[in-house]
Amino acid sequence: MKKLCPICGDKISMLSKVQISDNIICIPCSRICSLSPLATTEAVKKAWEENHRRFQSFEETMKITEIGSGYIFIDMPKQYAYISNRKKYKLEPIIFAFSEIEKYRLEMVGEKVITKTKGGIGRAVVGGALFGGVGAIVGASTAKQETKTTGGTPRLIITLNLNGLKTSVNIVNPPLKASEALDNMMNL
């Protein structure tokens, strides 16, 4: 018999469960307490009830996006926001007050560092001709190395404190003005 999530009532399978301090909950419900492993069932329930109230009253007054980027939806009068990779959401998004933003960071996921050595063979030949085997080794080791970073996808991660529950939300390919918008939110 499968266990039911005490928050939403959905079935919890062996592969889709998260342990909190006093119970096991489903992965979608754990999104609101992802950085609070000691959260209680009651605290998570209250957080989702508050999130649902915020979501029902959310009125988009501003949207920050660009072609191929994620979205930041803002309700300026209430000073609420949420982020999403899609215009339409599959799960109810986590609605956060501007004052609940603790920090944010932009990181590159999937970057590769490539190092190329140029001129190693030529330097080894010249060093070997002048100084023998040792000269060849020294010549090869003095070759110029060029390092560059390629690829990767930017990801915005926002850390939130929702009445004591810590969580993070993120989007891939954030809009270029995401940092500016978040700085403004944090300063209000």
Shape descriptor: elongated
Note the beta-strand portion: 35-45%
Count of individual beta strands: 13
What sequence of helices (H) and strands (E) makes up the elements? EEEEHHEEEEEEHEEEH
The number of helices is 4
Tell me the structural class: alpha+beta
Helix content: 25-40%
Q: Whole-number average pLDDT?
A: 88
Radius of gyration: 25 Å
Largest sheet geometry: 4 strands, antiparallel
- Strand adjacency order, main sheet: 5-6-7-8
Which regions contain 5 or more consecutive residues with pLDDT less than 50?
none
Distance between the termini: 50 Å
Which helices and strands occur, and which strands form pairs?
Blueprint: E1 3-4, E2 11-12, E3 17-19, E4 24-26, H1 27-30, H2 41-57, E5 62-64, E6 71-75, E7 80-84, E8 96-97, E9 101-109, E10 112-118, H3 120-141, E11 144-150, E12 153-162, E13 165-172, H4 178-187
Antiparallel strand pairs: 1-2, 3-4, 5-6, 6-7, 7-8, 9-12, 10-11, 12-13
